[in-house]
């Protein structure tokens, strides 16, 4: 549904908020805060309020490997069946640095012999695993122990997959094992979502399969350490509020799965636009009896009333000459 702004209503208002000026920080990672307006925004009963995300400035200070989100790997000793838990230190990784960390971790395990390699194959766009100096498979990467915290997307594995690194005496790259899927090191956060308690029916969320508090979603198109912008020209989606007064609200930064984003000590700014529109009269839908009465009434109308013919265009000079000739 689209809304038409009117000059008869109050002017649009912009609420510029820096998270450093929050009335109350509601999380230790600086992703959730509450803000109280000293002067509430009110609208008369004859008007309704629309809000939209006007702009935002968010430092790309959060990580693609995050604590308790996608940082846990289990390695299985194929000889004894025992497992070793490994926690990836939180940080921003590339495919190269993540592969190097995985290789060094495997090599450091007490039950591995020979030399293991984890490289990124640019042709296949997949991680490649192989080993030299071994005769039997010794280890597997087990992502089934705690799949909710496993970096399966980042490593190119299916959810809950158990990957045997070496299926035999593979000692050449040609005999290597490849990751099942193409890895995506940024798979845990492709976009930043701004959520607020001001709205609850503006966006449908496929995760929760219902409407959510998402005010706007900003794709990440900069590298680590850059600044993520939402430009005013992208302000197109407006949400109708169920209240006539804005006194206080909360703002929350999440990834595209609804999980909080750790800003690592940096603040961000958000600008929310508030518009007023004339209150629209709500027409109650007809019940079955009213619909039947209307259908009977239409059926009784004469044909010339049912079929309103379009008015004919005035005849041109050429039309008159053509009629005379005929």
Word description of this protein:
The protein is of the alpha+beta class and 326 residues long. It has five helices and 19 strands. Strands 1, 4, 16, 17 and 19 form a five-stranded antiparallel beta sheet that branches. A five-stranded antiparallel beta sheet has the order 2-3-18-12-15, with no helix packed on it. The radius of gyration is 31 Å and the shape is elongated. Mean pLDDT is 85; it is low at 167-171.
Sum up the structure in keywords.
326 residues; single chain; 34% strand
Quick recap of the structure?
13% of the residues lie in helices and 34% in strands.
Question: Per DSSP, what share of the residues sits in E-state strands of 2 or more residues?
Answer: 25-35%
Average pLDDT number: 85
Please report the total strand number as a whole number: 19
Shape: elongated
The total of helices stands at: 5
- Output the helix-strand order: EEEEEEHEEEHEEEEEEEEEEHHH
- Global Rg: 31 Å
What about the largest sheet?
5 strands, antiparallel
| N- and C-termini, Cα separation | 53 Å
| Low-confidence residue ranges | 167-171
What portion of residues is helical?
A: 10-25%
User: What class would the helix/strand composition place it in?
Assistant: alpha+beta
């Amino acid at each position: 549904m689209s809304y038409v702004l009117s000059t008869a209503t109050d002017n649009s208002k912009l609420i510029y908020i820096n998270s450093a000026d929050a009335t109350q920080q509601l999380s230790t990672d600086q992703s959730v805060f509450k803000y109280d307006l000293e002067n509430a925004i009110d609208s008369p009963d004859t008007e309704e309020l629309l809000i939209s995300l006007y702009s935002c400035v968010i430092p790309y200070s959060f990580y693609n490997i995050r604590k308790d989100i996608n940082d846990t790997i289990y390695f299985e000793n194929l000889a004894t069946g025992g497992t070793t838990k490994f926690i990836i230190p939180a940080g921003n990784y590339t495919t190269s640095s993540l592969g190097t960390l995985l290789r060094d971790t495997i090599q450091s395990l007490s039950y591995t012999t020979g030399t293991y390699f984890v490289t990124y194959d640019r042709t296949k766009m997949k991680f490649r695993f192989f080993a030299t100096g071994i005769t039997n498979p010794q280890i597997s990467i087990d992502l089934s122990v705690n799949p909710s915290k496993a970096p399966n997307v980042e490593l190119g594995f299916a959810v809950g997959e158990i990957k045997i690194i070496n299926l035999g005496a593979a000692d050449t790259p040609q005999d290597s094992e490849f990751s099942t899927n193409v890895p995506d090191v940024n798979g845990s956060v492709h976009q930043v979502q701004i959520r607020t308690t001001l709205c609850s029916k503006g966006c449908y969320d496929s995760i929760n399969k219902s409407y959510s508090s998402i005010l706007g979603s900003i794709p990440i198109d900069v590298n680590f350490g850059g600044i993520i912008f939402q430009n005013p020209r992208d302000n197109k989606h407006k949400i109708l509020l169920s209240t006539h007064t804005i006194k206080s609200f909360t703002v929350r930064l999440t990834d595209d799965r609804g999980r909080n984003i750790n800003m690592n000590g940096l603040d961000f700014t958000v600008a929310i636009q508030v518009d007023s529109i004339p209150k629209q009269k709500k027409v109650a839908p007809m019940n079955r009896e009213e619909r039947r009465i209307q259908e009977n009434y239409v059926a009784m109308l004469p044909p010339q009333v049912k079929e309103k013919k379009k008015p004919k265009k005035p005849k041109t000079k050429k039309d008159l000459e053509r009629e005379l000739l005929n």
